[in-house]
Amino acid sequence: xxxxxxxxxxxxxxxxxxxxxxxxxxxxxxxxxxxxxxxxxxxxxxxxxxxxxxxxxxxxxxxxxxxxxxxxxxxxxxxxxxxxxxxxxxxxxxxxxxxxxxxxxxxxxxxxxxxxxxxxxxxxxxxxxxxxxxxxxxxxxxxxxxxxxxxxxxxxxxxxxxxxxxxxxxxxxxxxxxxxxxxxxxxxxxxxxxxxxxxxxxxxxxxxxxxxxxxxxxxxxxxxxxxxxxxxxxxxxxxxxxxxxxxxxxxxxxxxxxxxxxxxxxxxxxxxxxxxxxxxxxxxxxxxxxxxxxxxxxxxxxxxxxxxxxxxxxxxxxxxxxxxxxxxxxxxxxxxxxxxxxxxxxxxxxxxxxxxxxxxxxxxxxxxxxxxxxxxxxxxxxxxxxxxxxxxxxxxxxxxxxxxxxxxxxxxxxxxxxxxxxxxxxxxxxxxxxxxxxxxxxxxxxxxxxxxxxxxxxxxxxxxxxxxxxxxxxxxxxxxxxxxxxxxxxxxxxxxxxxxxxxxxxxx
Length: 508
Ligand SMILES: Cc1cc2nc3c(=O)[nH]c(=O)nc-3n(C[C@H](O)[C@H](O)[C@H](O)COP(=O)(O)OP(=O)(O)OC[C@H]3O[C@@H](n4cnc5c(N)ncnc54)[C@H](O)[C@@H]3O)c2cc1C
Description:
By secondary structure, the chain is an alpha/beta fold. It folds into 2 domains: 18-262 and 445-506, 3-Layer(bba) Sandwich (FAD/NAD(P)-binding domain), CATH 3.50.50.60; 263-441, Flavocytochrome C3, Chain A, domain 1. 30% of the residues lie in helices and 21% in strands. It contains 14 helices and 18 strands. It has helices at residues 29-40, 67-71, 78-88, 95-117, 157-166, 220-226, 228-233, 245-251, 315-322, 338-345, 362-374, 384-391, 395-411, 489-506, and strands at residues 16-25, 45-48, 60-62, 123-126, 143-147, 170-172, 175-183, 186-194, 200-211, 234-237, 263-271, 282-283, 299-301, 330-334, 378-381, 432-444, 455-457, 463-469. Strands 1, 2, 6, 7, 8, 9, 17 and 18 form an 8-stranded mixed β-sheet that branches. Strands 10, 11, 12, 13, 14, 15 and 16 form a 7-stranded mixed β-sheet that branches. Strands 3-5-4 form a 3-stranded antiparallel β-sheet. The longest helix is centred in the first third of the chain and has 23 residues, at 95-117. The model has no long low-confidence stretch (mean pLDDT 95). The site of flavin-adenine dinucleotide (FAD) has 37 residues, from helix 1, strand 3, strand 7, strand 16 and helix 14. Flavin-adenine dinucleotide is lined by residues 25-31, 48-51, 55, 58-60, 62, 176-177, 212-214, 238-239, 241-242, 245, 264, 442-443, 471-472, 488-492, 494.
């Protein structure tokens, strides 16, 4: 819900006023890090959050030269990494911000490990395996996973909340940002709304306001305006809390934002057969109908039953490729040997076998997949003809495509799309499986322009005094798709820049 209502007069005498030094909007990845950093400097810190709870803190954190990486003997060449990230974005980024992240990420990631994980017997495990077999899909071992035993994930949100409360941070839930208040060019606080009693009140912030509301992926109106293709190619939004409130509030006081869209799309959205993309944009916070197997380079075909791209690509690329096909959706087709193939694919990041949780081993991946057969989102058939019919795909085309893939796989050379031989697997052993897939928008990245102090910029590229942004409310860092070969960058961009914003605001 976006409670921005600029037409109202909030300057009435009966409106309640509370005061703080640093005010943070949003108790998510950037917001809680900002709060901890401000509180560490000894300033009075208040966080408002529109929901009853803090948001999920992400388990895979990117970083360069973190303690976990040092323990694992991992060394990343930062110049190569920054050039890769900038090139991935075709340099539509503020490259200085990327260096800033690289240079500050370890301090932020280590802070989480030392202050939040270790007191609870958990740690970060750095993943050394980048499986760099194909230079086209170069990857960097940036990922640090929060874990207790290296095989399961350690969810640390509750510990983080306890930690900041112990540090003196006040958290006000069910409270939403309505608008920023500005006096003589300086942001002095906000108008807020208590979502329980629907009453408006003011919060004065003497040192600054930090916007951490997490982008706008839940707001279909803003998506149609700023990123219309995202609405067509994605059938799920996995960040239902993020409706653009922070970005809009800042723009209402003269801030500028990135002009080109950027976002994180994953290729794991199961679509009920027969559903059109324009009729589906499911908002979920619980990984609803999320198929891990879909990020594996199995055969993918368009709604005509024809292969249309090399399936061995970063997560978002196959969804981008499908957006050039009729209907924006695509089908994945595979056979009963998929467990064996998944192990041999050697995929990366959270698509790899061995990723804690659902993908810890082949048996878990198979069980995760089979549950969707029971739900009717994956169909199973004894013959390919039956499979095509169940998926509403043209039977002749699918038979032809599968015959060609099997031929290429026997030759060991993908003459059509250049997939690596070890990922070119046949569809030959019944029962056959298939499903329809579309994108999942995890978050948007195009945000407010900020400088290295995380100050929000106005049209003259001058900072708006006492206004900061971090996480997906802030921009300049990503362009187009998410570089998933630099795993954990999204959460770490939020946490690292949140930490910098908190420190900076506390200095005023
Ligand atoms: C399923 C999923 C898995 C992911 N996994 C990873 C991963 O492993 N590694 C990685 O790097 N990235 C991951 N990401 C991306 C990562 O979560 C985001 O980039 C990151 O959370 C952004 O942080 P943020 O602080 O900007 O926003 P958030 O963490 O979303 O926090 C924003 C907070 O602001 C609150 N808020 C919104 N509007 C208002 C308002 N008007 N008033 C008050 N409060 C408000 C929201 O309720 C929310 O709590 C994942 C995303 C998803 C959806």
